């Protein structure tokens, strides 16, 4: 039993030092996604009415491949950051929170990796 007040016990501990970095990462990915999504939508509009071969040919361009990979990485990383905040804010049981965070990070990494590998397979003629 301590005679120190809760405020005295908390003084000097500061924050976990991750909040600002997390906030900046989320904002930077959001800013990066704006031009990437605009590029993607415009590209898809240009491909309306084309067949599968035209889409594959479009995606085999190095610039299109690079932009698509950037879009996928930024999207999945941004989603992971946002879901992390939701879980940390609304899941109160520590065990459930840790399990949810681990599961969510695993799933977003797995889906992101599958998406990137799929684009690279198409780009390099493996599809």
Written description of the protein model:
By secondary structure, the chain is mainly α. It is built from 5 helices and no strands. Helix 2 (19-46) crosses helix 4 (62-90). The longest helix has 30 residues, at 94-123. It starts with 5 loop residues before the first helix and ends with a helix.
Could you give a short description of this structure?
The chain is an all-alpha fold. It contains 5 helices and no strands.
Taking pLDDT < 50 over at least 5 consecutive residues as the criterion, the unreliable ranges are none
The whole-number mean of residue pLDDT values reads: 91
Please summarize the sheet with the most strands: none
Looking at the structure, what is the overall shape?
elongated
Which radius of gyration do the C-alpha atoms yield? 21 Å
* Beta-strand percent range: under 5%
- Structural class of the secondary elements? mainly alpha
Distance between the termini: 66 Å
Order of helices and strands: HHHHH
Number of alpha- plus pi-helical segments: 5
Helix content: over 70%
User: How many DSSP-defined strands?
Assistant: 0
């Amino acid at each position: 039993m301590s005679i120190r007040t809760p405020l005295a016990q908390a003084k000097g501990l500061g924050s976990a030092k991750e909040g600002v970095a997390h906030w900046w990462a989320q904002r930077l990915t959001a800013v990066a996604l704006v031009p990437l999504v605009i590029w993607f939508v415009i590209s898809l509009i240009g491909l309306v009415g084309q067949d599968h071969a035209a889409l594959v040919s479009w995606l085999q361009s190095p610039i299109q491949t690079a932009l698509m990979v950037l879009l996928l990485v930024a999207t999945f990383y941004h989603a992971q950051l946002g879901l992390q905040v939701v879980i940390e804010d609304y899941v109160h049981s520590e065990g459930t929170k840790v399990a949810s965070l681990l599961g969510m990070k695993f799933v977003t990494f797995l889906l992101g990796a599958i998406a990137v590998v799929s684009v690279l397979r198409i780009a390099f003629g493996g599809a």
